[in-house]
TrEMBL record:
<keyword id="KW-0808">Transferase</keyword>
<keyword id="KW-0812">Transmembrane</keyword>
<dbReference type="InterPro" id="IPR003594">
    <property type="entry name" value="HATPase_dom"/>
</dbReference>
<feature type="region of interest" description="Disordered">
    <location>
        <begin position="624"/>
        <end position="688"/>
    </location>
</feature>
<keyword id="KW-0597">Phosphoprotein</keyword>
<protein>
    <recommendedName>
        <fullName>histidine kinase</fullName>
        <ecNumber>2.7.13.3</ecNumber>
    </recommendedName>
</protein>
<keyword id="KW-1133">Transmembrane helix</keyword>
<dbReference type="InterPro" id="IPR036890">
    <property type="entry name" value="HATPase_C_sf"/>
</dbReference>
<feature type="domain" description="Histidine kinase">
    <location>
        <begin position="495"/>
        <end position="600"/>
    </location>
</feature>
<dbReference type="InterPro" id="IPR013587">
    <property type="entry name" value="Nitrate/nitrite_sensing"/>
</dbReference>
<feature type="domain" description="NIT">
    <location>
        <begin position="39"/>
        <end position="277"/>
    </location>
</feature>
<dbReference type="InterPro" id="IPR005467">
    <property type="entry name" value="His_kinase_dom"/>
</dbReference>
<dbReference type="Pfam" id="PF02518">
    <property type="entry name" value="HATPase_c"/>
</dbReference>
<dbReference type="InterPro" id="IPR050428">
    <property type="entry name" value="TCS_sensor_his_kinase"/>
</dbReference>
<dbReference type="InterPro" id="IPR010910">
    <property type="entry name" value="Nitrate/nitrite_sensing_bac"/>
</dbReference>
<keyword id="KW-0472">Membrane</keyword>
<feature type="compositionally biased region" description="Basic and acidic residues">
    <location>
        <begin position="651"/>
        <end position="666"/>
    </location>
</feature>
Amino acid sequence: MLLLPLLSLSALWGFVLNLTVGDGQALLRAGRLYQTLGVTSTDLGLALQAERADSALSPAKRARSLGAQRERTDAALRAFTAAAAETDDAQVRQTLRDTTQELDRLDTIRASVDTGLETRLTNLNAYNGLMDSLFRLYEQLTSVPDLPIFQQASAMQAMSNAREVISRESALIGGALSEGELTEAETAAFSEYVAARKFLHARALSTLDAELRGPYDRFFAGPAFAAFTLAEARVAVTGEPPRRSEHWTRPVADVTAQLDRLGATSAKILAERSDAVSTTVMVRIAVAGGVGLLAVIASIVISVRFGRRLSSELAGLRSAALDLAEVRLPHLVTRLRGGEQVNVRKEAPPLKVSGAAEILDVAKAFGSVQRTAIEAAVGQANLRRGISQVFLNLARRKQGLLHRQLTLLDGMQRRTHEPDALDDLFRLDHLTTRMRRHAEGLIILSGSAPGRVWRQPVPALDVVRAATAEVEDYTRISVEPMPTAAVDGSAAADLVHLVAELLENATIYSPPNTTVQVRGDAVSNGYVIEIEDRGLGLAPEEYDRLNALLVDPPEFDLADSDRLGLFVVAKLAARHGVSVTVRASPFGGTTAIVLIPRGLLVEQPALPPADAPRRERKPLALVGGTTTTTTHKGLPRRVRQANLAPQLKAPEQEPRPERSPDEVRDLFSAFQRGTQRGREEEAQEGDL
């Protein structure tokens, strides 16, 4: 915001300074060119005019003076050539090159004069060409930055051109006087000279100001110029040279002398004016350069101080905004996710900043944004809390209905003695148990606990068997022998649920003709349960994403309902400090590793399997305070049902001996009695 005005001011100062310095450079250039090319070219022009006049004379008359004049011309030419070689001005370089090339013809012109092969007019025109090139160079040297000075200098240049025309007339008539006649071509050329001289004088007089024009007006009205114009008119009218040389030479000498004197006086006046212009340019340079520089420096200082203050105010506003965005709002969202009630007015105080009115307005705008964001976050938290409560209420109601359904199924199993009917009732009982697990999943996702706990430790093997019993395709699960270990009863139900979700995921995403291997082992950090399937597996980045979700479960997203089981596993693992990791299996599938921490393990041997002989019943204290006796049937019903499940597996999973219908009926009657007893105990243990 501050840099752009400073750059604009600096650019404007540089532009003005460049203009004024350019004028100064133009004056310096004009003075430098006048001291080098101007002086030497003027001397060369005078020498060429004199040599031209001598060259127009007859051979007898020019023999006395032409040689000495040519030496003076050569000296002037050498001085001019040396000055031209030292000049590096780009504006006059091309004109200077053309003039130098034209002057190289001087030897050829002299040879033509000496041999007499060309006419007098031709030789004079050749010298005139040399003078024309010099006058073109003069026009380049009169370029000055001040327009009035340039106009007066141009008018004086026209006067100089008229003086050159008079010199050409004098050379032409001087040659005619020595020969005694004028040719028709020379008469025509003389008439052209007269017309050009009149045009140049009129042009110069129209441009000169009053101070410079006054002396010329008086001169042109004087007797000397009148005598010259009279002699000029006689020659133009008669086409013959004057009868006596003094009738031409004296008027021409008087006119040229006075013109040279007026030219010198006018040049002095122009020089004084140029000095005044130079002083003005230097003053402008001083103002534009000095005062302008001081203004730029003052603007920079003021802008820097203002910028620092503004930067400090913006930095304070930025810090307050970052604290709001990166500290306060995330902390508030974390508290809301934890279920804490938040006071919007207390948690959204106005930002404390100081500065200009604009900064305060922005701070107020941030305060409004902060208040709106907190209100939106509180509203979202209340919405999530309401949805969780709906989940919880529905799950609790569903859990009660499922418990009643299990009770009805138990009564039907007691009244049924047909093996096929008992098998169907057992499958229906199994599906109802899975429905109860899904209801518990909703309770877990809502942030509550399912409610099933045991005071006594539960063997790890029975945890795995109970989880297996809650999987639809349980006949494909193969549980290998596991070391003796027991888990705390308060975490047993959640561990059963966790392992059941992983087992069901393994059976769903693996071919139906494969088995799911379950292994357990005691390690230094606790107890490990490995679940390995023979599916297609996942990409490495997908494993990384799932492991990140299991390590740090995010807030449950209602839109992402395809992985409810993983959310449930992550929540249960985070609740008890259990580590769950998935990785690629050597067989191409997926291996899930559940590490139960040592804090959840207790020193107690595992209970005997289902087919072991009954031991003496011992009292078992339940959560509700009721005391009962138990054998293997005293375990949770799903554990007991899992122990019986191997006896009901399909022939391809575990071959069983052929039994008669009476033996099968007795077997399911025993299972029926065990199931009924287990449900009664679950009701006493607080299964709801």
